[in-house]
Please model this.
Amino acid sequence: MDSTRREVQLRKIKTKISIDTILHFPILTFMKYKLILFDADGTLFDFEKAEKNAFHTAMKEFGIKEKIAEFHYSYEIINKAIWQEFQEKKITSEKLRIERFRRFFTKMQLDLDPVKVSPFYLQKLSEGIDLLPFAEEVVKYFHGKCEIALATNGLSEVQRPRFAASKLSEYFKHIFISEEIGFPKPNSEFFEHIFSKLPFSDSTIIVGDNLTSDIKGGNDFGIDTCWFNPQKCFNNSDFIPTYEIGKLEDLKEII
Model:
């Protein structure tokens, strides 16, 4: 067989293989990123609902029957401030549990023991597994197309049970919790730990609702960031995300 005829036959074989591949196998979708880091609370999970229910239940359990909505507003302010301290490594997660209630009871002049209230509250919080709109749909969409992982600032005793009982548990093999790592977002050590397990730092995006932890952390570490901003809040910080979305399903258009 001369070389010309052999080249023609090889081209025919390659063409047949190519056509058979198209006919018998699904077309692969190539993602822009190899790894998506999803924040949990406020991004996938409806934390506001879970936290409100846990607070109201705890107050009623310990004898507070009136002004619970007013008390909750004050608690939210204190809780947000103390989590900011945690992000800045000014307080440990162990102390945070009790200290936020101690400050709250002192401010509101409530004769309650934070050591007793805190574990009850955390137990109820761990039962809050409601998801935000399109969370399951979006996670399911990316599952199998690229690596996905949860990356959350939270307490293990709250986050682990919530994740395990939620509809998202079947999709996530990798869950990174700040308390277990020893460093919260936005600290670089948090991300160093993740990339020691999942070596995709050159092709990763983090998706989250918090500018000071998710977006700042991602920016500082040199990965792309996506700010989930369903309330259309104005960004008056110095932390500029790579992308901004108002609906989770919009992720399909940019990744």
